Amino acid sequence: MTAAPGPVGRGEAIAFEGEGTALSFDAIACPPPPLRGIEPGAAVALHLADPVKLAWALAHLGGRAGRLVLVAADTAPALLAPLLAEAGADLLLTDRDGLPALPARALRWDGLAEPTGPALPPVGIETEWVLATSGTTGAPKLVQHGWASLTRTVRRGGAPQRWGQVYNLCRFAGLQVFVQSLLSRSTLVLPRLDRPLAEQVATLARGGVTALSATPTLWRKILMLPESASLPLRQVTLGGEIADGFILGALAERFPRARVVHIYASTEAGAAFSVKDGLPGFPAAYLDPGSPAGALLEVREGRLFVHNGGVRPGYLGGARFADERGFVDTGDMVERRGDRFHFLGRANGMINVGGNKLYPEEVENVLLAHPAIRFARVAAQRSPIMGQLVTAEVVPAAANAPDPAGGRELVKALRHHCQDRLEPWKVPALIRVVAALGPNAGGKLERRPAGRAA
Amino acid sequence: MNSQAAIVTTDPSIRNTILALYEEVVQGKDGASGAPLTDDTVLLESGLDSLGFAILVARLDEELGYDPFSLSDDPYYPQTFGEFVTFYESNRPS
């Protein structure tokens, strides 16, 4: 399949299951207003809190809209107007209240998600899919995908599954689960993501999901919940963060009947490759031309570059992120050991604490603002629960006045100092008081992650 | 300790260290004191979120000198406080 999703399939089989809602493939061919009234070729932004409505809108408008702009329900209202203007959306389909004045006509979907009227025939337009990066620093950027880049790692054929959806459907990973489920004529079980995780997992268990994709951080939390014992999983997928050997092993142990696969993807590079042998990193053979990786891979000076044909090589209305040959710098450092590449961390020193990103400089500046501190160095430490944690080494300003408790009082004071000024995941989990910071070989302060990411 | 027991016995020192650091991390998080901890308490419902547990594991590594998550041959995530303590006891380096 190379074009848009087009005919989503026929039959009584259930396509989407939400709380108190089940829609068959037949039913979703009969969309209610206002979905029904959207003209083919329109540029539509989707801003829907109800995951079933969002899934239905994606299924109906993929292959029908000229452009689909996915705006996550948790996007700050102030960001909406610039985002819609940048994305060139004419219409905003929403079930949300209290929106500010926007540069697109608002189309409300307040009614139930119930099939209405005769089935609409597919149109077969090559839809442009526009996603916002999660943008932890600054405003989100827009990236455009085609059907090919969204479906690169989608597994064709095979028996239908019951997929659980714990990603936001507006994010790249959520969209991947969506297309995988749709193309394999599986059922997609959609818990409300604003509920506690234990409740979401219970919904997935009741829904009998056989396939589930989540970040390593989310998988760790799921494994720590007793509700996970009743998930009848045959397919376990990890994405969004680097998967380490411990979480891969723990998943294989807990779900012995499941295939454990980790996917390497980013909003910019799209779905690059998947690793199916249950081990961290990826086989070096993925760099060979014609390898099973799908996208072309290169390693330049220890950094992974990806060429994915289906992705537009720059942000919408903004900077190009691919080089002249179409390769995207992923910013991930890799190291070859034997016949395998392993991930070492981010080239720019960015630390990822359970999906929350930060730069060490921000934390260092906060530490240095404390009068008792002369030097500070912040780094990542590997964590079996969050992937990475923030650690700090500090040199006190008063050279010969360490308190007798080995700096315990100073550490306590610094922790409070940071808690008052930083978000919780940025506060150093460990603070070590040292006499001096050792420079690295280059003479610069060492800023590579202290622990290996995988 | 009862040396005749074939199963892993409870080492009060490890349990006490875990309890003390657990309290310290809970206190550090806006002083929100959790419900009384029993062996059946589900970790993520005990008043600490996953970031709190990550911090606890990192501080225990400093205090006890080992991290069972990196030592264990049997990759596993404990769900209850009792399982957490046992995980530390049974993976203590000899």
From TrEMBL, chain A:
<dbReference type="Pfam" id="PF00501">
    <property type="entry name" value="AMP-binding"/>
</dbReference>
<keyword id="KW-0472">Membrane</keyword>
<dbReference type="InterPro" id="IPR045851">
    <property type="entry name" value="AMP-bd_C_sf"/>
</dbReference>
<dbReference type="GO" id="GO:0016020">
    <property type="term" value="C:membrane"/>
</dbReference>
<dbReference type="InterPro" id="IPR050237">
    <property type="entry name" value="ATP-dep_AMP-bd_enzyme"/>
</dbReference>
<dbReference type="GO" id="GO:0004467">
    <property type="term" value="F:long-chain fatty acid-CoA ligase activity"/>
</dbReference>
<keyword id="KW-0436">Ligase</keyword>
<dbReference type="InterPro" id="IPR000873">
    <property type="entry name" value="AMP-dep_synth/lig_dom"/>
</dbReference>
<protein>
    <recommendedName>
        <fullName>Long-chain-fatty-acid--CoA ligase</fullName>
        <ecNumber>6.2.1.3</ecNumber>
    </recommendedName>
</protein>
<feature type="domain" description="AMP-dependent synthetase/ligase">
    <location>
        <begin position="129"/>
        <end position="275"/>
    </location>
</feature>
<feature type="domain" description="AMP-binding enzyme C-terminal">
    <location>
        <begin position="362"/>
        <end position="443"/>
    </location>
</feature>
<dbReference type="InterPro" id="IPR020845">
    <property type="entry name" value="AMP-binding_CS"/>
</dbReference>
<comment type="pathway">
    <text>Lipid metabolism; fatty acid beta-oxidation.</text>
</comment>
<dbReference type="InterPro" id="IPR042099">
    <property type="entry name" value="ANL_N_sf"/>
</dbReference>
<dbReference type="InterPro" id="IPR025110">
    <property type="entry name" value="AMP-bd_C"/>
</dbReference>
<dbReference type="Pfam" id="PF13193">
    <property type="entry name" value="AMP-binding_C"/>
</dbReference>
